[in-house]
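Example: OmpR/PhoB-type domain-containing protein.
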Amino acid sequence: MSMFEFAGHQLDVQQGRLRKGGQDVRLRPKSLALLTYLLENSGRVVTKDELVSAVWPNVAVTDGSLSQCVTDIRRTLGEGAAKLIRTVPCRGYALDEKLVRRSEALLAPAVFGPSGRLSIAVLPFTVAVPGGRHTWIADGIVEDIITALAKIPTLFVTSKSLSFAYRDKAGRLPDVARALGVHYVLSGSVRVSGHELRLTTELVDAQTGGIVWADRFDRHFGQIFAVQDEITAAVVERLKSELLPQSRAAAVIENQREFELPRNQADQAALWDR
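Written out as structure tokens, the predicted fold is:
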């Protein structure tokens, strides 16, 4: 688990908790995710595009949204933020690493999270072309998995905003798991060819680096959201069987949307090209 100390504040990454003088400090979720990402990448210039991709994955936002979050952070941190966060014209932002103290738990990530629950983080799945038109499909599946797992009372799941802050950092799973305070990490990849989708998933024990479970799903696109729901259900059931063999807890995937098969090839192509 990572703990950052800066500008008279402390940030517990696992809990997503910002404090000052022992008191909780309120910060909007997106602003907190942005601050966390800057802290994790202190000492270098983080471009605007990188920040937008990390905090607003697959969502079109303006520079104004990013600037508003930075302003929110600076206002919350007070005078200490002036030297901490530097605006780099036409590029992005840089956080002075000399003004940040980072501490790590001496022990490896605990198997159990808060309240004695088993702990897991679901990282954004990689795609062949990062930021391309297929990213929304991968992100949708990850979001559904996080939502489904969060409904299991005996499982602690890190929030989407924290997990997505580690996009493209799956190569450092032990570090990511330690920062998020979890024992298990689920990662995956999505490849698309025509109207065929192949998704691979991998559950890793962050303490040992060993693969607990891995699988592959090949699907043909028809009802795209139905395919996402099918894959999500399959992954969640496998995770439950691997992590909670004695538990009867059920992950309920609620689907309040109604989908119809495209009436013709043109309709199907339009849905696919979203």
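The CA atoms of residues 212 and 267 lie 40 Å apart.
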